[in-house]
Amino acid sequence: MTGFTTKIAVLLRDDLLVWQRLNVTAFLVSGLATTEPELLGDTYIDGGDVEYLPMFRQPVLVLEGGKELLTAAHTRALTRDVRMSIFTSDLFATGHDAANRAAVRAVPTAELDLVGLAVHGPRNAVDKILKGASMHG
Asked: Which InterPro entries does the annotation name (predicted)?
């Protein structure tokens, strides 16, 4: 990851099922891609001139930690004014975007049952936010 002054990272709760980890990761990074277009590289084109969508221009770290670590990372991100996407346990029971947003809106910040978050920011800020997390196994 050398050469990048910023870092993209996803933090997942360590008690999620495999399908939940994949689902949460996909939802979380979509928030970063849509609000920070400078993160996206150029369109891909294969040897047959078929065009594909662009992807992030830098690696995405996927980390894991316990419920307390997610809460602490969330708090640290808020105090450092780093934008993030979040996924709460309530979202596993919803079926569409409006219901997802309503589920998050219904819970005070300090009471969110976080199962994942994604951040993009300066490398040192992201490292401090995710302190204590380990690489996803």
From this structure: DUF2000, Pep_tRNA_hydro_II_dom_sf
Write the single-letter amino acid at 78.
Answer: L
Which residues 6+ apart lie within 8 Å of 97 measured at CB?
none
Per-residue pLDDT tens digits for 56-113: 999 999 999 999 999 999 999 999 989 999 999 999 999 899 999 999 999 999 999 9
41-69 b/e (C-beta count within 10 Å ≥ 16 → b): eeeeeeeeeeeeeeeeebebbbbbbeeeb
Q: How many Å apart are CA 24 and CA 46, to the nearest integer?
A: 29
Q: If we measure between CA atoms, which residue out of 66, 21, 19 comes closest to residue 29?
A: 21
Domains for the chain: give ranges and CATH numbers: 6-135 (3.40.1490.10)
Q: Which residues contact 42 (CB under 8 A, 6 or more apart)?
A: 54
